[in-house]
Amino acid sequence: MHQSLQTNISQRETEVREGRGLPKTQIIGIAAKMGSWVCLTSGVGSVTVSGALPRRALSALLLQNPISLLPSYQFHHNRRRVCASASSGAKELQQQQYLRSPDLVALEYADLNLTDKISEELGHVRIRQHVNPLSSSLSVPVEVPDWNQVFRDPTLPLMVDIGCGSGRFLIWLAKRNLVMRNYLGLEIRKKLVKRAEFWVKDLALSNIYFMFANATTSFQQLVSTYPGPLMLVSILCPDPYFKKRHHKRRVVQKPLVDSIVSNLMPSGQVLMQSDVLEVALDMRNQFDSQPQVLKHIHEIDSSVLCDSEGWVLSNPMGIRTEREIHAEFEGAKIYRRIYQKQM
Ligand SMILES: C[S@@+](CC[C@H](N)C(=O)[O-])C[C@H]1O[C@@H](n2cnc3c(N)ncnc32)[C@H](O)[C@@H]1O
């Protein structure tokens, strides 16, 4: 086991034992996750699932989600489910309790320490299921910002996340690549953008910017005016719009693909994924239709593992998006492709 992880585990074990009033608690297992890890801690006749690194997440889980009972546990990779069965010799007490999907999101992003306190101006962030990207209010391209005001160094390579949702995924990446890259999140749900802006300010990050912008109408103007190279565009679990008459609302359409292709730097990449096969195939067809300029990563780098259908097996980003966490929790597969622009 990695030395620093081992040290963290020992520290956490001591904290749990001494600081949380759980005298006989000890950590009995570690479930490694992307970018973080979960400790399974046991007391006398009880098991508690406790959180990843930050103290706040750990104590919140200890208080809110005590999963009682059981000497043995299973961590299901796909369902991200911790099953607790009965304490020794008490089969009649058998029960199962599960971590909820939002808890897993909180764990995945625990090291960001994002505040739950939302500014007065923003109020409660109630998220409507969908916003129609074809509505007239979203048909006007947004004003291009002064990139010098937006990023500390606007010449750094840029990653754009189209339909960034809450923005946690992009904030996590920006925090890890402070002086190397800039990050731009485009999202049509205004309250999500406001909250993401609040978090960016709170964390004092100068390499990330969120915009309330319809990628369909604004992507081209935004990326073509950015002073540095466009190195990565991600479209992760876009809204599926299942009904045929709503397919035109899907974000990946030919003009957007053309714009991505023409603005990407040589060797720049596109990461697309969906937990809905039909949507993934739709996006794949669009990007596959430019074989002279865009090659799938598997053709370039055979070390990137794909299944027999050509879907990339693992997430290359080091962190899962929220939708990805929810989908995997439900047992869904993520259909993923990575394209690279030819020199
Ligand atoms: C299912 S969510 C996925 C969010 C995030 N990428 C994830 O994987 O957790 C899709 C997001 O895309 C946003 N969206 C849909 N169409 C868009 C468009 N044309 N431009 C920008 N954002 C869009 C939606 O508001 C929604 O937040």
Give an account of the 3D structure.
This protein is of the alpha/beta class and 343 residues long. It has 2 domains: 3-110, no CATH class; 119-341, Vaccinia Virus protein VP39 (Rossmann fold, 3-Layer(aba) Sandwich). Helices cover 31% and strands 21% of the residues. It contains 11 helices and 12 strands. It has helices at residues 3-19, 55-64, 101-108, 147-150, 168-176, 190-203, 215-225, 254-263, 277-288, 297-300, 322-329; strands at residues 26-33, 36-43, 46-50, 73-76, 81-84, 158-162, 182-187, 208-212, 230-236, 264-274, 294-296, 335-341. The strands form 3 sheets. It has a 7-stranded mixed sheet with strand order 8-7-6-9-10-12-11, with helices on both faces. The protein has a 3-stranded antiparallel sheet with strand order 1-2-3. β6, α5 (168-176) and β7 (182-187) form a beta-alpha-beta unit. α3 packs across α11 (322-329). The longest helix has 17 residues, at 3-19. It is globular and about 50 Å long. It starts with a helix and ends with a strand. 37% of the residues are buried. The model is unreliable at 1-6 and 16-97 (pLDDT under 50). The structure holds S-adenosylmethionine.
Walk me through the topology.
Layout: H1 3-19, E1 26-33, E2 36-43, E3 46-50, H2 55-64, E4 73-76, E5 81-84, H3 101-108, H4 147-150, E6 158-162, H5 168-176, E7 182-187, H6 190-203, E8 208-212, H7 215-225, E9 230-236, H8 254-263, E10 264-274, H9 277-288, E11 294-296, H10 297-300, H11 322-329, E12 335-341
Parallel strand pairs: 6-7, 6-9, 7-8, 9-10
Antiparallel strand pairs: 1-2, 2-3, 4-5, 10-12, 11-12
Helix pairs in contact: 3-11, 7-8
The protein binds S-adenosylmethionine.
S-adenosylmethionine is lined by residues 131, 133, 162-165, 186-189, 214-216, 236-239, 251, 321-324.
